[in-house]
Amino acid sequence: MAQVNLHTTPEFEEALSALMKARKLKSKSEAIRLAVQEAAAPFRAPRKRDLSALIGFVDRLPGGRRTNKNSAELMAEIDDEMEAKLRRLGSRK
User: Fold this and answer.
1) Taking the mean position of all CA atoms in its chain, how far away is CA 29?
2) Residues 71/55, Cβ–Cβ less than 8 Å
3) Are 71 and 58 in contact (CB under 8 A)?
């Protein structure tokens, strides 16, 4: 495990102590790891693509055939296909 050394202010120490007390954490390291993980969580989660602009455009298949899926189901299917393609492209590295 990598080690990080940092200089802190009295305000930081006070906030860290409050976090440790509130979360019943035993060490400063544990409190800092938790705070960083929680702060970074939104940035580490895969982004969901907004395909709402396709609503209305995907209700009919080419050739005039009707689909038994609604727009939301088709959007989810497209999103899944895009995710699979991105995973395949990512594994080629």
Assistant:
1) 24
2) yes
3) yes
Q: Rounded to whole angstroms, what are the CA distances from 23 to 12, 13, 30, 50?
A: 16, 15, 10, 36
pLDDT in tens, 4-24: 899 999 999 999 999 999 999
Range 46-72 burial, b when 16+ CB lie within 10 A, else e: eeeeebeeeeeebeeeeeeeeeeeebe
pLDDT digits (tens, 9 = 90+) for 36-76: 999 998 888 777 777 666 666 655 556 655 667 777 787 78
Place of tokens 């982004």: 47
Q: What tokens appear for 81 in the block?
A: 């296909």
User: Closest Cα to residue 90, out of 50, 46, 48, 55?
Assistant: 46
- Mapped onto helix, strand or coil, the DSSP state of residue 54 is helix
Domain boundaries, the chain: 10-44, 52-90
Token pair, residue 64, equals 């005039």
